[in-house]
């Protein structure tokens, strides 16, 4: 049993795992969101439940570049973005998986289009009022944030937020932690439209999918509609 999951979450997870195994749901699930929202914690959980490989764009970049992500900042961000876009293009083509995206991966227009068209793009959202408390810890571990003031980091957050609007689903990750957020993502997946649906599920509009996902999530954690 995963920590923090109810019996219902487990049941949803089991259902999703069988759905994924049946290969009806083929798109990669791509996790977007600001640094520190929990993509790297949630990604492995989802990958485990869905029995899919887990990919990470930062790790991919490090592998092809042969050096750590932090060495690209502050002077070689453009090169980092080029390699990050390459990572997205390559990883999306590998079949069903869970992909943890770097926080800035959606800055690239081509990556946004690719992810919108070929993955299920999920925005893991932490409202600024919650994230701001974690900023000192984030600054210590994220090269991109070093030397920036709180106001500058907030500005960066807002720029990023604008790119995350391209996601088909938004899940608010509250203080409840990654396991419950993973359960929210799994519940949302159950509501998906399109050819991946198991027979018998009525197709619904994208808006309805999002609303349904939000409603499901609201039952277990707070959803922030105002951003
Ligand atoms: C970045 C986020 C980082 C990493 C790089 C740049 C960003 O990934 O890709 O430091 O621009 O937001 P995480 O979101 O996994 O920390």
Report on the structure:
This protein is α/β, with parallel strands linked by helices and 227 residues long. It has helices at residues 7-21, 39-50, 57-65, 77-92, 109-118, 128-131, 135-141, 150-164, 178-190, 206-218, and strands spanning 29-32, 54-56, 98-100, 120-125, 169-172. A 5-stranded parallel beta sheet has the order 2-3-1-4-5, sandwiched between helices. Helix 9 runs antiparallel to helix 10. The longest helix has 16 residues, at 77-92. It is globular and about 45 Å long. Bound molecules: shikimate-3-phosphate. Shikimate-3-phosphate binds at residues 35, 39, 58, 69, 102-104, 142-144. Shikimate-3-phosphate binds next to loops.
Average pLDDT number: 79
- What order do the helices and strands follow? HEHEHHEHEHHHEHH
Instruction: Determine the strand fraction and express it as a percent band.
Output: 5-15%
Distance between the first and last residues' Cα: 32 Å
- Strand line-up of the largest beta sheet: 2-3-1-4-5
List keywords for this structure.
alpha/beta; binds shikimate-3-phosphate; 10 helices; 5 strands; 227 residues; 50% helix; single chain
Short description:
With 227 residues, the protein is α/β, with parallel strands linked by helices.
Annotate the secondary structure layout:
Elements: H1 7-21, E1 29-32, H2 39-50, E2 54-56, H3 57-65, H4 77-92, E3 98-100, H5 109-118, E4 120-125, H6 128-131, H7 135-141, H8 150-164, E5 169-172, H9 178-190, H10 206-218
Helix pairs in contact: 1-9, 2-9, 3-4, 4-5, 9-10
Bound molecules: shikimate-3-phosphate.
């Amino acid at each position: 049993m995963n920590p923090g999951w109810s019996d219902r979450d487990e049941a949803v997870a089991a259902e999703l795992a069988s759905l994924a195994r049946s290969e009806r749901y083929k798109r990669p699930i791509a996790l977007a969101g600001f640094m520190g929202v929990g993509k790297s914690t949630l990604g492995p959980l989802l990958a485990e439940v869905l029995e899919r490989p887990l990919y990470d764009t930062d790790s991919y970049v490090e592998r092809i570049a042969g050096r750590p992500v932090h060495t690209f900042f502050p002077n070689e961000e453009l090169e980092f973005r080029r390699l990050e876009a390459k990572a997205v293009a390559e990883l999306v083509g590998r079949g069903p998986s869970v992909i943890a995206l770097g926080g800035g991966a959606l800055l690239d227009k081509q990556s946004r289009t690719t992810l919108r068209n070929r993955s299920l793009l999920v925005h893991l959202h932490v409202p600024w009022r919650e994230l701001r408390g974690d900023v000192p810890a984030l600054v210590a571990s994220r090269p991109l944030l070093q030397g920036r003031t709180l106001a500058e980091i907030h500005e960066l957050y807002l720029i990023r937020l604008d790119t995350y609007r391209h996601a088909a689903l938004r899940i608010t990750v509250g203080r409840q932690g990654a396991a419950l957020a993973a359960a929210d993502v799994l519940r949302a997946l159950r509501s998906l439209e399109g050819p991946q649906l198991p027979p018998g599920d009525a197709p619904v509009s994208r808006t309805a999918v999002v609303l349904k996902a939000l409603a499901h999530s609201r039952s277990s954690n707070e959803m922030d509609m105002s951003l």
